[in-house]
TrEMBL record:
Protein name per Swiss-Prot or TrEMBL: Acyl-coenzyme A thioesterase THEM4
Entry GO CC: mitochondrial inner membrane; mitochondrial intermembrane space; ruffle membrane
Catalysed transformations (reactions): dodecanoyl-CoA + H2O = dodecanoate + CoA + H(+); (5Z,8Z,11Z,14Z)-eicosatetraenoyl-CoA + H2O = (5Z,8Z,11Z,14Z)-eicosatetraenoate + CoA + H(+); tetradecanoyl-CoA + H2O = tetradecanoate + CoA + H(+); (9Z)-octadecenoyl-CoA + H2O = (9Z)-octadecenoate + CoA + H(+)
Organism of provenance: Xiphophorus maculatus (Southern platyfish)
E.C. no: 3.1.2.2
Chain ranges of the Thioesterase domain: 162-234
Length: 282
C-alpha cells in the first residue's frame, strides 16, 4: 500500500521543492512559481508565449464574478509579495498556485495509455470552459497555519435544482484539507472525511472555505473546515478530516536497502562457494 502511495506521490513534479515539514513556504517550485508583484502582471501573457509552461489555474479569468475578484484582490493584497514595501497589515498570506505533476510513476502508470499519461490532472482543474465548474484559489497563512479557499461554483456542479451538488462541495473540502495537510507536513492521503451539510449553496455563488489544523498526532493531521458565505454570516457546510502522512519515504528506502543487502549477501555467498569448490578441486 505504502509503496503504491509512494509511486503516486513521486509523480508530483514539484513536491520535492515544496516546503513540506517546514511551515515557511519557499517561493519557487519547478514549473510553478510564487510570483512577485511585478511578475504577476506578466502571468496572463507568459503562458501564451511559452505554452510549455504549466498553466496556473488559480489566477483570475473572465468567468470570475465580482465577489470572487474582490476576495481574490483582498487576500492578494495581504499576500507576502504584495505587502513587501507596503504597510504591514498584520497578517501574511501566500497564494498557492495550482500544482502540476507527471503521471509517469503513478500506480499502474506503465499500463496507462499515452493520452491518459499526458492529459490527466487534478480533476477539479480539468474542465476547459472557464467558470463552468470549479473556479477556486487557495491562500495559506503560515503564522496561523490556516488556509482559505475562495470558491465559485459553476453550472456543471448542479445537484438539487439551482444548488451545488454535495459531492462537489465534498470535493472542494477534500482538496482544501488535502492541500493544507500536505503543506504542513508531507504528502498525505485523506483517510477519513466527515461532512455536515448545514445549508445549500446556490449555484454560481462564491463561498469561502476555511481550514484549520485541529491537531497533529504522529503521522495523522486532523483538519477542520467550514464553508460559509463570503461575509461569514451563513454556514453552508462543516467538515473534519484525518489525513495521514504517507510513510513511503521510509518504506521505500528500507525496501531498497534490504534488497541491496540481500543481493550483496547472495553475491558474496556465490563467490565464496565457487572459490571454495575451486580450492577443494585443486
Ligand atoms: C501547492 C500545494 C501542493 C499540494 C499538492 C496536493 C494537492 C492535493 C489536493 C487533492 C487532495 C485529494 C486527497 C484525496 O482525495 S486522497 C484520495 C482519497 N483517499 C484515498 O484513496 C485513501 C485510501 N486509503 C489509503 O490509501 C490508506 O488507508 C491510507 C494511506 C489513508 C492509510 O494507510 P497507511 O498504510 O499509510 O497507514 P495506516 O493504515 O497505518 O493508517 C495510518 C493512520 O491513519 C488511521 N486511519 C486509517 N484509515 C482511517 C480511517 N478511515 N479513519 C480514521 N483513521 C484512519 C490509522 O488508524 C492509522 O492511525 P494510527 O493507528 O497510526 O494511530
Amino acid at each position: 500500500m505504502a509503496r503504491s502511495v509512494g509511486r503516486i506521490f513521486s509523480g508530483f513534479r514539484c513536491f520535492g521543492s515544496l516546503p513540506f515539514g517546514n511551515p515557511l513556504l519557499k517561493t519557487q517550485c519547478s514549473g510553478v512559481l510564487f510570483r512577485t508583484t511585478s511578475e504577476r502582471t506578466l502571468v496572463h501573457v507568459l503562458p501564451k508565449i511559452f505554452p510549455r509552461k504549466p498553466r496556473d489555474f488559480s489566477l483570475p479569468n473572465s468567468s470570475w464574478g465580482k465577489e470572487m475578484m474582490e476576495l481574490y484582490n483582498h487576500y492578494n493584497r495581504l499576500s507576502k509579495e504584495a505587502t513587501e514595501g507596503q504597510e504591514d497589515h498584520g497578517e501574511e498570506w501566500t497564494r498557492l498556485p495550482s500544482y502540476n505533476r507527471t503521471l509517469k510513476y503513478a500506480t499502474g502508470g506503465a499500463y496507462l495509455s499515452k493520452i491518459i499519461q499526458s492529459k490527466a490532472r487534478l480533476f477539479t482543474r480539468n474542465i476547459r470552459d472557464p467558470g463552468a465548474a470549479f473556479e477556486y484559489v487557495l491562500f495559506f497563512r503560515q503564522d496561523k497555519l490556516k488556509c482559505v479557499c475562495i470558491f465559485q461554483a459553476g453550472h456543471l456542479l448542479e445537484g438539487p435544482p439551482g444548488h451545488v451538488h454535495g459531492g462537489a462541495i465534498a470535493t472542494m473540502i477534500d482538496t482544501v484539507t488535502g492541500t493544507h495537510a500536505s503543506l504542513l507536513s508531507a504528502p498525505v492521503m485523506t483517510a477519513n472525511l466527515n461532512v455536515n451539510y448545514r445549508s445549500p449553496i446556490p449555484l454560481g455563488s462564491t463561498v469561502l472555505i476555511e481550514s484549520i489544523l485541529d491537531k497533529e498526532d504522529g503521522r495523522k493531521m486532523y483538519i477542520s473546515c467550514r464553508v460559509t458565505s463570503t461575509d461569514g454570516s451563513k454556514l453552508h457546510t462543516e467538515a473534519t478530516g484525518n489525513c495521514p502522512q504517507c510513510h513511503f519515504h521510509f518504506c521505500h528506502a528500507t525496501l531498497c536497502i534490504v534488497t541491496l543487502l540481500l543481493l550483496l549477501f547472495l553475491h558474496a555467498a556465490l563467490f565464496l562457494s565457487i572459490s571454495v569448490s575451486n580450492l577443494l578441486r585443486r
